[in-house]
Amino acid sequence: MFTSIAERAVVVTGGTRGIGKGIASVFARNGAKVLITGRDSDVARAAAEELSVGGAEVSFIQADVSSREDCRRMAANAIGRMGGIDVLCANAGVFPDGRLADMTEEMLDEVLGTNLKGTVFSVQACLPELKRSGRGRVILTSSITGPITGYPGWTGYGASKAGQLGFMRTAAIELAPSRITVNAILPGNIITEGLAALGEEYAARMAVSIPLRRLGSVDDIGYAALFLATEEAGYITGQTIVIDGGQVLPETLEAIAPEVGPEVGRAEAAG
Ligand code: NAP
What we know:
The protein is α/β, with parallel strands linked by helices. The chain has helices at 18-29, 41-52, 68-82, 105-133, 155-175, 193-196, 200-207, 218-229, 262-270, and strands spanning 9-13, 33-38, 57-62, 87-90, 137-141, 181-187, 240-243.
């Protein structure tokens, strides 16, 4: 149904594990050339090898998105390996826990430096190649936390994730004449390696507040990124897609309690 993105050149920052690795995997499985990045080169190498199984074209470069110089090196490497950049998935992120009362300047610098400045640096570095592509796509990994919801300990994180959306809306306008679209995915609770290690009971407890009663998979996020990268999504820019199993919808937990629903209402009316 959708135009193939085979052979497109895709950069996924933070593509060495978790959601980014899932995004990279979906693009690779659909025939794209993919470059993944992360700070730990051993993890990056192992991920690239794993994602290349079956003949997919996945390479890696060690790069820290909070460094403008590293982002430039990343873009140059992408040109060298893939011949250009059609899609940038600016996904690298950290989520340090820190209550407002205790948050140090260093903690704030880390989370804003990676999540917000890192997004800006990555896009800036890839911009010339995205323009050259003629159908450039920027896909940000934001979060429901910050733009829509809050959670104790995540004031800095929430600010960084909401900040990405402020960046996106003006970037979308500035880059539209170059036929580059800029959109953001807002994941809810997604099962990554770290979360899976906490066990099924933990995941089940978290799933209670989600109408679809399960946590998301990294593929759930990857498929949305793939769609936003297609020709058919070329008229969508400056927009957000929430992928959370409906987590932000209920006004209270009671709204999704099994005993609440039309049946209860009907029974009450009848009684
Ligand atoms: P993760 O499993 O910890 O993976 C984070 C990735 O980012 C790794 O590849 C990591 O590699 C890389 N990274 C971190 N800091 C970096 C830096 N300064 N420069 C370059 N790479 C860096 O995290 P995740 O859960 O997949 O999260 C990925 C994105 O999704 C983040 O932006 C996060 O805010 C967002 N998100 C996640 C969830 C969720 O439920 N998991 C929900 C909402 C939003 P290195 O450590 O080797 O650098």
